[in-house]
Amino acid sequence: METPNNNYPTIHEETLDLKRYFFLFLSNWYWIAISVFAGLFIAYLVNRYSEQVHMVKASLLVGNADGRKVGQGVQSLMRELNLTQDKKRIENEMGILKSYTLARTAIEELPDFMITYVNVGRRGIAESKLYNRSPFIVELDSVEANATGYPVFITILSDQEYAMDFDDGMPEKKIQFGQRYTDNRFDFTINLKNKEGYEQKSQSNKYYFVINSAHGLAVNHMKKVNIELNDKQGSLLTLSTTGFVAQQEADFLNKLMEIYIRNDLNEKMQTAINTIDFVDEQLGGITDSLRRAELMLQNFRTGKGIINLSTEGSALLGRLESLYTEKNILSFQLEYFVYLEKYLKEKKDLKGLVSPATIGIDETGIATIVGQLNELSLERDGLLLTVNNDNIQIVRLNQSIESLISLLFEKLQGMREVNGIRIKEINKRIANQEAQLRMLPVTERELVNMERKYSINEKFYTYLMEKRIEAGIAKASNVSDNKVIDQAMPEMAEVVKPNRSTNYIMGFLIGLLIPTLLILLFDQLNNSIQDPSHISRKTRVPLMGTIGHNPYESLLPVFDKPKSSFAESFRALRTNLDFMLAKVDNKVILVSSTISGEGKSFVASNLAVSLAMLGKRTVLLGLDLRKPKIHNLFGIDNSKGLSTFFIGRDNWDDLVEETTVPNLFVMPSGPIPPNPAELLAGSKFDELVTALRQNFDFIIIDSPPVAVVTDAVLISRLCDTTLFVLRHRYTSRNVLDLVENLSKTKTINNMALLLNDFKKPRGYGYGYNYGYGYGYSYGYGYDNTYGYGQGYYTDDENGNGVKGFLKRFFS
Q1: How far apart are the two ends of the chain, measured CA to CA in Å?
Q2: Residues 6+ apart with CB under 8 A from 384
Q3: What gap in Å lies between CA 346 and CA 387, rounded to an integer?
């Protein structure tokens, strides 16, 4: 037996086969189309039935950023004394606008927010919020007794009654409008807004309402508020929020800005208010003293008949009034110092400290410290909106404030001591003047004392009243540094959800992505041979060709349908075998596989038919002694066969059965023996092959699977080539490792591969297998991957046989 040399090609590296994946997706186009249609349909339903979400915007200018000069009020005075910042930090103002306190105050001043009214569509799919548009109104008799966040379903039956359901399995209740309802969870009354002219206009008469908690609403709206700074160099803020009802969101934003401006104005007026309170406290005592002094002076002049003082008495009175006025001012300063100490010890809001300048006290040192305390307090309150108390900045500010308070206490103590010394000095001077007063006549001396008391109280009263009027004017003339530029208007609202174009794009992409990923996943999980490129990447054993899927009921389509493309694929295989075994006469070809079900008996039978139709005397041996099938394909009796020949019962020439195919003979397997491996290893098999080579051109052997039993290995030792059948989408790729190992170890001689039952993907045509000098033959193919089949060409001019590879192209 002449065996050609093996010169296998190298294994192809694993590469990304884009064309294969393209046609993989193309072959499953209907799943992709269905998924894309489903995605677009879901996007349509979302766009059709989703409740619209609106965005409303407003503009707010924070700080005195418009360049106007505020020349009146406490703000002007405080700026002149450098007690407040000229412009608050924009970040702090943004934090205030997004604070829970401001949102909670806004919610509490919007009573319509406390109950959410919803209209339910007729099919229960679409819902719409009815802010200020509900046909009925719920009046809560006790907020404490009503459960929040619990839907109460209402069906309006007429203008007189409605049905109420709590969706808890209990039967619905029919209640008259205006009738109070009370249970362990609720206490309310439902009234129809326009009972006399009520007409059902909405799409559905089904509604539900939910009683909200102020805390929950405040937290929800606080999170929804978004604030952007239009210009980093400016202080114009754009406030926006989103919700189902544009009017409701606009009302919230407008109320939020209103409260923000109001709080800012109240904060500015706090100093003026504290000043007025302090002056009023001082006026409370001086008013009574002035009234008594005036009454005593009037009674004395009336009783004594004295109208004017003498020149000496008038001079003495003037000096006493001057001294007492100075003493009262010093006493007033002491009262202010006591007020400051008490205010600081009680830990009140430091932003409300009364500056000494606002009540006419010229103490620059104290005024500077009070101003610094105001500034640090404002900065700390702003930071507390965004950070915790243990933040390093807050800790440093608290330390600075405590240091300033300690310094202020020391300053106040020193000023009190200085004022005490000055008052003692003034008292001595008053005593000297009173000594001179005692030298005057008794009547005039009494008049001087009364005039002195009256004049001193009057001047001090006038002084306090002037300061109170100044503080009152300052309070009334305060203007907020913040102002609303654009109110939030529902007419300017933008619909942000559903975003129709985005939803359709997402529906399309998701509909495309899901089947794509599933196809790729199943393709990766599928470990079977999917295309010929898998073979060339895993083994050097040449692929002789591909056999397509048998579209006919016949088990011998090569004979029954000789002009079909399926029969043509066996002719291509026949040609490739001729090239491969060009220098071998009376060729013995073994057809095997790894496991049963891969079509080796089918391939062996049709290959034998194809060779016989070429005019070659061909014999087909059924050497699958364990599961014989050949006799069934040709309708031959299997009572005797090769198994009986191996045990010496029959001669081999008696077992050769002629078939209806010209030039084709079959030797059946015979009865199943208990020891087929031993029979094949014996000399009888060698004798049989030798005899058949002398009588036939081709000997085709159908053997058992290699991975199951060793029969094929025993048979291959006498064969010219072993055609290893792989079934498309059935044989595992791991089998190729076994094939490569069998080839390397030469356990099976001169192996070649055949891909059987190849299912051509949709949209593919035929490829070509051709060799130099022998024309071409057809084969199934579906990509540009190169495969190799071994064969021999014609002799060259020197008569030498040229060995090469048969390159197979796929179009």
Answers
A1: 37
A2: 394
A3: 25
Residues whose CB is less than 8 angstroms from the CB of residue 451 and which lie 6 or more positions away in sequence, other chains included? 297, 309, 317
Residue 642 burial (10 A CB sphere; 0-12, 13-18, 19+): buried
Supply 646's token pair.
């191996």
Of 138 and 197, the one with more pLDDT: 138
Amino acid at position 197, single letter: G
User: Using CA atoms, how far apart are residues 619 and 609, in angstroms rounded to an integer?
Assistant: 9
Interatomic CA distance for residues 141 and 255, integer angstroms: 26
At 232-280, the pLDDT tens digits run 666 788 999 999 899 999 999 999 999 998 888 777 777 677 777 777 7
| SS3 state of residue 735 | helix
Biggest distance spanned by C-alpha atoms of the chain: 178
Nearest-angstrom CA–CA distance, 597 and 725 = 10
| Whole-number pLDDT of residue 742 | 82
CA–CA distances in Å: residue 387 to residues 271, 380, 390, 402, 616: 27, 10, 8, 20, 96
Whether a cis peptide bond, with omega within 30° of 0, leads into 171 is no
Structure tokens that stand for 32 in this block: 């992709």
For residue 615, give both structure tokens: 């005019």
- Sign (positive or negative) of CA dihedral 117, 121, 125, 128: negative
**pLDDT tens track for 13-68:** 556 778 878 888 888 899 999 999 999 999 999 888 888 899 999 998 887 544 43
Q: Identify the residue whose tokens are 């909200």.
A: 212
Distance from C-alpha of 429 to C-alpha of 326, rounded to nearest angstrom: 11
d(CA 371, CA 369): 5
Yes or no: say if 561 and 552 are a contact pair by the CB < 8 Å rule. yes
Q: What is the pTM of this model?
A: 0.55
The pair of structure tokens assigned to 673 is 């023996």
